[in-house]
Amino acid sequence: MKNSNLKRFMASLLAVVMIFSVVGISPAVFAEGAVAPELKANSGEVIIKSGMTNDEVAQILNKALISNYDELDDATKASLQWEYYCEGKNGLLTNDAWGSINGFTSTKKIGWKEVTYTHAALKDAKAGNYQVRLAGTTTEATLVKVDKYSTKVELKADASITYNMDAAAEKEAIVASVIDYEKSNLPEGTTAADFTVQLKTGITEFDTAYDNVPDTKINAGDGNVIRVKYNGNDTYKESDWAKATITVAKATVKVSVTPITTIYAGEEIDRDNFYTLDPNDPELDVYVLFVGVNSNMESCVNIKLSDGQEKLIEAISNAQETWYDIINDTESLTLKEKLQEGITFGELKEIINVIVTNKTIMGILELAGYDTEAIENIVTALDQLTSLSDDTIIAIGTPAHAGVYVATAVAVGKNYETSEGTGSLIVLKNWKGITLEKNPILNSGEKANTITVSQANELAKGNNLCILTKDGEALNNASAGSINYWFTGVGKLYAKSTMPTAPGKYIVTASVRGGDFFAFPKTFTFTIVADPTPEVTPE
User: Fold this and answer.
1) What is the DSSP letter of 252?
2) CA separation (Å) from 283 to 253, 280, 345, 377?
3) Residues 513/424, Cβ–Cβ less than 8 Å
4) Treating both helix axes as pointing N-terminal to C-terminal, what angle do 345-357 and 373-382 enclose, rounded to 10 degrees?
5) Predicted TM-score (pTM) of this structure
6) What is the C-alpha separation between 7 and 18, in angstroms, rounded?
7) pLDDT tens digit string along 292-348?
8) What's the rounded Cα separation, in Å, for the pair 163 and 161?
9) Which helix (H) or strand (E) covers residue 365, if one does?
């Protein structure tokens, strides 16, 4: 070889050696012109299990540590062999050495004797960090061998969800919207079932108390402290707890009132069919309010209470009585007594506000197991009727008189925005079993249909020559106002709507007009006689 050619050859060889020395691979390992493997400094976490084959382990290292593995030709890939630096054992003796990831032996002289050490295959080695390299090279990389991948949960700051009566749905909302997935380290495709969510419920003597969601619900409000962890599986480790303070916004509820409900005077509405809620949360307090004009042309407001609300009114009244006993004030009327006596809109709100601010009364109710917030719900419901003045008289129950009423169902609850629905209630005159009858006093004397002048005067005052009965039972005196009469005299000049009181014989036609009831007219003859002459006892 000429001297100039030798120089060019040596220069090329030196360049190749310099290139391969950077990646730590001997130029003799790979074919001429082949792409050389580029080693990463760190593999990141890699799962290698003892049940794998040696070829599977080698392939895992190829993919985890060679950044340009897909660019290598088949011959280069086939030539790749891995070594790792690990501890070998001989009884209690140990020796660290390089060798095949498939397992190897090493020797070391101790004094005059050469001792052989057994090094396990990489797949059988315990989890940890190991230095590895391609056989025939000197560049090392760090292999992070794990049994399971590490996980981490990060929660968003100032996160919020909306209250849901289904606690499982609240947990799903937290997993979906409170976990910061960009900052967390979690496997793909996780669901709410893969996490444990807990709500801070207090502080015990030794620790902070937490309850699992959905075993407990998170109520609406600020400052709810939660913690979340990923539960782990066969491939991923359980994470540490991540804590956050979240806001739970009040939910909305749709209240739908039956557009037109028809009942007869004296009947009660059926709350179960009068309105519907969506969602139908039993924690919601629903007050049904009626505003309208009755058959007596009177404006009125009625509140229909549920059984639970009536029990609450009873409990408030009992607590008031206890309080009155404490302060030796036994003359004040309780809420129940006020409602029975008649109360204005303004008075009712004032009484409730006094109760809410009275710690003793509220304490008595709380000890009895009542949710004191339900008391405030009464005023919240009444406040929806913005058209009413404070001097409006309020009655309890379904409107008793015939008429047309605007019906409003107001749903109130600490976890919901106050909502309402409206419809109409038509109270019809009641005809079922209703009969117009002669007053029994007409037949109380010796002669039928005969009354005295004194009796006639009493009947005229009460407008109850006739009475209304339902299924044979007399209705209350209020029904008398709806009975109208036309009287004509027999053998004498008398034709009026006013009941006569002078002795004589009369024909009367009684009919029902207005009021709350309907009955067929009744016509009959009756006689008014002079009062008996008082007996005089001789002196």
Assistant:
1) P
2) 12, 9, 25, 12
3) no
4) 160
5) 0.69
6) 17
7) 877 667 677 888 888 788 888 888 888 888 777 666 655 577 887 777 666 787 888
8) 7
9) helix 359-367
